[in-house]
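so i finally got all the pieces together for this one. its two components total, 486 residues if u count the protein bits. some of the lines might not be protein, just check the labels. i wanna see the whole assembly predicted at once instead of chain by chain like last time, that was a mess tbh
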Amino acid sequence: MKNPVMILNKPQMGENIGAAARAMLNFGLTAMRIVCPRDGWPNPRAIDMAAGAFDQIPPPQIYTSLAEALSDLHVVYATTARPRDMIKPVFTPRTAAQDMLAHQNAGINIGLVFGSERAGLNNDEIALCHNIITAALNPDFSSLNLGQAVLLLSYEYHSAANQALPELGEHTRAPTADHKTMEEFLQRLEMILDEKGFFRTPELRPTASRNIRNLLMRSQPSDQEVRTLHGIVTALSDNKKSH
Amino acid sequence: MKNPVMILNKPQMGENIGAAARAMLNFGLTAMRIVCPRDGWPNPRAIDMAAGAFDQIPPPQIYTSLAEALSDLHVVYATTARPRDMIKPVFTPRTAAQDMLAHQNAGINIGLVFGSERAGLNNDEIALCHNIITAALNPDFSSLNLGQAVLLLSYEYHSAANQALPELGEHTRAPTADHKTMEEFLQRLEMILDEKGFFRTPELRPTASRNIRNLLMRSQPSDQEVRTLHGIVTALSDNKKSH
């Protein structure tokens, strides 16, 4: 399945082109096209800002008109700061990602168009596209820059494309100790607390010991951690080295 | 409902602090804290890069240590480029947003910690946090910058907050104690363990104390539970009633 093509239309600052490349490659996107870059191409500021991304993607293709840059694409999405009075489907970044994947599964080449920093896309440019993508932003401060817009769309595409993959679980740690191991620790702790007079009255004991159990079991200690807990209890209750 | 607090730990470039503020405010987030900004504060480059965001949010609070910046927060998420071998729950930006909202619905103050551009967060800094957030990136190019990381998390929080509120589920228990309360307990425990000779060698001490911290913070104890832990330590280390 081909990557969606990211098309920067009349970008002004090289830094933003570099930030866009960096954003794309973080999410595995590698196809960039640039229409009429204000400061020409290649642009050293773009290279600086890309953190090496341009070494790992095909060279961006440069065009002199948006229509030309879109000529081999089948379905194109215009990104805009707010929905326009144009009669096109409007997607959020997330719903657009689903739509993009559905089209790609049908073997279709898709592209996303990003406007210039100052003015975004004008109505003629949007008219070249099939769909509009608008992110819901703070109505009092809607100011995503070019690199940030490319980042969000790349992220949503990547998330949708990898959805079948398992989520990162909570399993970077050692497995939880078995019940018997934890039980032995809790019983030892309770016995020593009893000897030390922790449980003020016999009536309070069941509740207090349940609270301790809840607290410690909630963290699902591993075997190594249960050994650490044993070590703490041993050290704390050792009179020989006391202060 | 309070905004999550975004904590920039030892940021280097003012530009990135400005990009972070701009990213936050686009998604309605306004609470920024900065720990030891390399170039001091205020920083003209940050102001330039923020596109006016600093005029619309409260002034960032400046701290000299991460622990101090977290002291009034209850549940804290560390953002890392890849999951570490640390024993904490690992979230994606999207699953973290759900978890954040569930905590906030329970009246809890939450924070997200972002590391410095060069090195991210070290293990001691991550140990101060309850959870880890890692975005799935291109394994051959994992290079989100600070502003981009803040953007993704702000975006996911905003997207989740504007959907139906998640049910509380497992969070029907008392709220997590704030960071300062837990910190006082951990420091007391460590001091007594030190006196009792728990740490065999000075070299082992940082790792051992990080392991204890990870284990206890993972269960996100409530105020009452921290008092129980204090009571256990007092009882265990009391010589008078020993066997």
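The first strand of chain A starts at residue 5 and ends at 9.
Chain A has nine helices and seven strands.
anyway lmk what u think
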